[in-house]
Amino acid sequence: MFENGRSKEVSSELYLASVFVSDAQYNRNIYFDTSPQAVRLYLLYNHWLPQVLLYIFIILDLSLALFEEPAVIPLPSWATMLVELLCLLVFTLRLVHYARVIPQDKFWKDPKNICIIAIVLTLIDMIIYGALKASSYQAIRWTRVLRPLLLVNVTEGRQLRRAFRSIRNALPQIIYVFLLFLFSLLIFSLMALKLVGKRDLKTTGGAPYFSSYVDIIFDLYVLVTTANSPDVMMPAYNASSWFALFFIIYILINTYIFMSVFLAVVYNNYKKYLKEEIRQLVRAKRHKMVRAFAVLQERRKDTEEQVVSQANWNQLVRLVQPDIRNAHRELLWSVLDPQNQGCIGKVAFVQLADLLNIEVITLKSRPHPLRFIFPTLYLSVPSRLICRLVRHRTFVMVYDLIILVNAIFIGLDEDNPLIADSEWMFLSLYLLEILLKLYVFEPRAFFSRHNFLNKLPSSFTSSTPSHIPPLFSPLSAPPQVVYYIFAMVGMELFKGKIKYFGEGSDDPTKLFCGNVLLNGTSFAQLNYCKNNFNDILSSFILLVELTVVNQCSGFTFVTHVSARIFFVVFHIIVVIIIINIFVAFVLEAFFMEYSVEKSDLHTSVERKIEELQLSVAQEKLEDNLVNAMDSTEGNCDTAEDKPVLMFKIASKSKNVFI
């Protein structure tokens, strides 16, 4: 039926085609050499073990800040530098491996290989640092801020790079709005200086109130975050109630209007560039699949059409997804070859990557043991009534309510006998629920699927898209990268300036955080001494607090008023830009979840499942998927036997956008 004189090369061709399909499935866009040796190296490059090892060494490299000065756990500098050398060696080997996989001209043009510069600069910094330390000179490790670049620029960090591209693409429009916001801030600050500055007002601490234009600008900027509200307005408000109107107008314009405009601009740009990202991903995916088809294509004798045979397709799917069930694989083939011709053309073949991304759950029907031991009792009318009752939505809701009330009673006063008795009653009801479900559901299914997450209220699990939370990780990484960079800079600028002595210390300088410049300040009086940059952990906690610009005044007291620039820049980057990008992603994810219809491919898979009579009834998915899966285990509603394997599509698709 087919013309194929390439049987000796079929193994290498299948491996090459499997690489193309795997790249298309996971949206990898790497131009690698197609020689057999390069393909083997590329398969090794994408193996999970070297990827896991790479991330272990990246985490180890980032964790060195715990042991470097200023340290949480001090270690000698030579020890941390040796560990960092080991990490740099692993990163270099990974880069060499990558260079062996792709053509040389592509390697040197790849922007993400900028991490080579970071590695070289780190080596130079280590040499200079070691020489200065050996000569008893003061030295700093200035390349520590470059460590997150390795996390961003590794090949596996493509989703993280997309997140940073979203930030970069949104910057031009954000700058325009930020300039308008800055103009409004300057105008209101000038108005405040003219209205209040000459009234000789004092703050509660006795300091001059709104007498310096620079101080007014900073105070009003902080007011946008509401961190100093209403303290900043009280001296003026006490002098005259009419001044409250000034602050109300300022908050309405700058806090509510401008901050909302920032979010709108970021979301609009994010959505626009998201569409372009998806188009590029679709084009790259189709290109990979066409190349895979070109490798495996055979000429059909009767029609002279280029096709892929079912035998080659089966081997290809086994290579791409080794853990796929035979029944699942046959289901996918029947979708692509509905006429049962034994081969598929290019149009059908290029859908394979999308087809593998459709999460089809295979359900194995297991009769309940009681059905074999006591068939008459288990299939009796009362038994069927119990089964219907346990699987009914009302039963689930009632026991969700019982668990919630029991949790409330646990937190109450246990010395009260009424509360103690109530706890025992709720515990008995919960045990009764377990026994009823063990009676209805097959035991192995019960213990494997009735975990903590399944005890969440059904209204929560049914209304929240289940695949959205894992997608938060790429968008949550940019704030962590920025936190790390600012923590490194902050430790070099402010380490040792503010000290925390602990609750049991009797050091007299404890009252002003170990720095006489803080004596009598609100920072020391409010016992904010632990908010410092004396180690990486304290720095991260402080930066989380500073996300709302709270109490950075202590650092201006111990250094210079220009230290405010550090905290304002941090707030602009994290809150105004990155957090808005994150919110835009969440909004778009939910809009996509509730507005995007199923694709034709999803419909084809569902239709084929129904044609084969292997479908889980849709009405059994009203609560959640787990209940539907359990309902196939040991059903006592009917004496009819079910197929051994049944299928159900878990969701519309695996999202690939960031």
UniProtKB/TrEMBL annotation:
A molecular-function term among this protein's GO annotations: monoatomic ion channel activity
Start and end residues of each Ion transport domain: 53-273, 481-595
Compartments, as annotated in UniProt: Membrane
Membrane-spanning intervals of the chain: 48-67, 73-93, 114-132, 174-193, 205-224, 244-267, 394-412, 424-441, 565-591
Membrane topology: Multi-pass membrane protein
Annotated GO CC locations: membrane
Coiled-coil boundaries: none
Keyword entries, A-Z: Membrane, Transmembrane, Transmembrane helix
Pfam families linked: Ion_trans (PF00520)
Record-given protein name: Two pore segment channel 3
Name of the gene this protein is made from: tpcn3
